[in-house]
TrEMBL record:
Domain of life from the UniProt record: Bacteria
CheW-like domain segment(s): 17-158
Name assigned to this protein: Chemotaxis protein CheW
Cross-referenced SMART domains: CheW (SM00260)
Gene it is expressed from: cheW
Keyword terms of this UniProt record: Cytoplasm
GO biological process: chemotaxis; signal transduction
Membrane in keyword set: no
Length: 163
């Protein structure tokens, strides 16, 4: 057996499923690619930046790196953001840039087979933006909205990453 042949089953398994970090925004549960997550930190109020959009909470110093912090609840139009003991910041690495995303709470890491993920429904309404939703997965009784966090954080209206 060649070395290439020995690795093929593992490569096929990697393509057949993916791992997602799941978190809550209001009543909804979302999932993002675990490979984008650098760390999870407790919420600490960031230093506000003048004239920043409402969803841009400010910046924090993370071991010498100045990290912009976005409240995903405000960005996605969820219920009014409330900061409590469960509120966390998911530190992401997006296109080589470190960015923080505030969420209500982190649930767990799930491995989802690709065949368990359904495409996001088409929405005719201009008020619903499905551009950053990669799919929907049913996990037991839960519906999990899978988000393309890299596309969301690098969107021009975020002003975080030069395209």
């Amino acid at each position: 057996m060649t070395a290439t042949a020995a690795h093929e089953p593992h490569a096929q398994a990697a393509r057949a499923s993916a791992e997602y970090l799941t978190f809550r925004l209001g009543a909804e549960e979302y999932g993002i690619d675990i490979l984008r997550v650098q760390e999870i930190r407790s919420f600490e109020p960031p230093t506000r930046i003048a004239n920043a959009p409402a969803h841009m909470l400010g910046v924090v110093n993370l071991r010498g790196v100045i990290v912009p912090v976005v409240d995903l609840r405000l960005k996605l139009g969820c219920a009014q953001a409330e900061y409590n003991g469960l509120t966390v910041v998911i530190v992401l690495n997006v296109k080589g840039r470190v960015v923080g995303a505030v969420v209500d709470s982190v649930s767990d890491v799930l491995e989802l087979p690709r065949d368990q993920i359904r495409p996001a429904p088409e929405m005719a309404s201009s008020t619903v933006d499905t551009a950053f939703i990669t799919g929907i997965a049913s996990v037991g009784e839960r519906m999990l909205i899978l988000m393309d966090i890299e596309a969301l954080m690098s969107a021009p209206d975020m002003g975080l990453i030069e395209v």
